[in-house]
Design brief:
Helices cover about 45% and strands about 15% of the residues. Helix 3 runs parallel beside helix 5. The strands form 3 sheets. It has a 3-stranded antiparallel β-sheet with strand order 3-4-5. It is of the alpha+beta class and about 220 residues long. A hairpin with a 2-residue loop joins strand 1 and strand 2. It has 6 helices and 7 strands, in the order αββαβββααααββ.
Length: about 220
Amino acid sequence: ILANVYLHYVLDLWFEKCIKKQLYGEAYLVRFADDFLIMFQYERDAQRVYEAVINRMELFGLELSKEKTRILPFGRYSDSRETFDFLGFTHFNSKTRKGYYSVGHKISRKKKKQFKSNLKKWVKENRNTQFDEFMKALNKKLTGSFNYYSLSGMIKEVRNLWQHSLYVTFKWLNRRSQRRSFKLERFYEIWNDRIIHPYIHVDIWSGDKVIYNKNV
């Protein structure tokens, strides 16, 4: 909250009211808390604003993370294969099945590793909870992650997380002391019934939400 309030004045309004009118081409700023992305039509604008942002931050006692801040070519007219991470996604230049340009997305390596580590830790710590309560709590945890990443073109990524979660949970539930083990086939039926199924939650190209029916 503090980052949003502070940077609204330090960065957002400054960029809109002071910087954009000095540029040669179009430019757009996207920010969430203290993470932000600025898109430019021309590289020379990016170079100028990069230095200006550093000076602006220093004026208010702030500092850019130089390890995480860079200028890179990206977009329809760029041949670059460079990628960048933003808000848990890795973004890259891509094409549709018909050969048209599109921006591709996948779960960032860092966030995927973090998801798997947190899941394993949570399952190990809660596996002796009453089974129905355990599955309800797990479903809530997974629903948040699945919905966040369930954007256009991401269904395969999210299904991989769903499948990974199944095997991790199955493995550690079967290591409970003095508890009857599950057979994989039976556990898959339970999992299929109690854990949310991955589906595209939002079509980012049209901005529409997708209606989901588990039986389709």
